Amino acid sequence: METFKAFRVHTVDGKPQCRFEQLTLDDIDPGPVVIRTAFSAITYKDAMAARGVGKNVRTDRPCVTGVDLSGVVIRSEDERFREGDSVVVTNYQLGTFHDGAYADYARVPAEWVVPLPDGLSLYEAMGLGTSGLTAALAVDRFERAGLKPGDGPVAVTGASGGVGSLAVDMLATRGYEVVAISGKAEQTDFLKSIGASRVLSREAFMQDKSPLVSSPPFAGALDNVGGAMLDRLAANLMPHGKVAVAGMVGVELTTTVLPLVLRSIDILGINVSRQLKMPERRRLWQRMATDLKPRHLDRIARPIPFTDLDKTMDSFFNVSSVGRVVVEVGSTAPR
Ligand SMILES: NC(=O)c1ccc[n+]([C@@H]2O[C@H](COP(=O)([O-])OP(=O)(O)OC[C@H]3O[C@@H](n4cnc5c(N)ncnc54)[C@H](OP(=O)(O)O)[C@@H]3O)[C@@H](O)[C@H]2O)c1
Questions:
Q1: Can you identify the CATH homologous superfamily of domain 130-269?
Q2: Residue nearest atom 2 of ligand 1, based on CA coordinates
Q3: Which residues neighbour 179 within 8 Å (Cβ) at sequence distance 6 or greater?
Q4: Does the Cβ of 129 fall within 6 Å of ligand 1?
Q5: Per residue in 241-274, pLDDT tens?
């Protein structure tokens, strides 16, 4: 039987050990749709799984990690998919409790599979992936909540990260004035080049502690950080402002209800895990291929060879990672 390359996490004495291995199709979790992987990506969730942070990966047996996958169907027992279909799979249990994208092949339930929309290549799909879906859901929810470009600037925190940089581009593409809030002063030019009209230093932004900032500057905010950042954003929102909450870098929150009540703030929770139903998922992928397609994906996403996977993981913990890291899993995949 043909063997192929896979990156698996083993748990030994409670600690993760990652390595490349040669597997056969019978070694990976079964599923009716068999996909030849073209590209994957690295997200914070992948770095957590590789380094044993947060216990988000199964430990009773080895797991091929990688939560984002684009590729081509080579076999399907489900009539919704046929050999040759280009597809995308993100989240569900992929790469955490079901063998994932860091292997030449994956076998998955048909219910997890999204047909690649026209207008996106397999490479571009992984330039977007979970981060793009999160940014797209936030923009979509802003629009449904009635936020319009003329209402005022929209802040994006964690702006240099995967979700942040894609959101900056998507919001600017939709005509919003975007203010990027970032801890990386050296990324100011990058953030302006992808659509930010201004860049604020995270440290400076966090300094004003008042519960209600007079003359609040933002009509909307996408928070990719959480915790104290969410408190500061709420205090900086104009009346009827909207804050989309996606980030979980800071989980605990101490705040006041004052802006929420006195300024009628809407809080929009963003979740692209299995809670995001398939019709919504497909609709958002369609939008990412059309009106939400980032104009600067070539700057936001950078490819790395499959072999560089392990050494690139740590950039997600020391916060040096910028934009999206796309992993070239399938060697012959076109961009
Ligand atoms: N809700 C969902 O469904 C969903 C889906 C995907 C991801 N997420 C969450 O969204 C967040 C962003 O994901 P991502 O993929 O964009 O991650 P990422 O690429 O690692 O970017 C996170 C960014 O947050 C900022 N940051 C990191 N550590 C920080 C700290 N201690 N204090 C303040 N800011 C910090 C940094 O941006 P700057 O240096 O520019 O400030 C960093 O680049 C994560 O918490 C992730 O778990 C949620």
A1: NAD(P)-binding Rossmann-like Domain (3.40.50.720)
A2: 271
A3: 153, 154, 155, 156, 196, 197, 198, 199, 200, 217, 218
A4: no
A5: 999 999 998 899 999 999 999 999 999 999 999 8
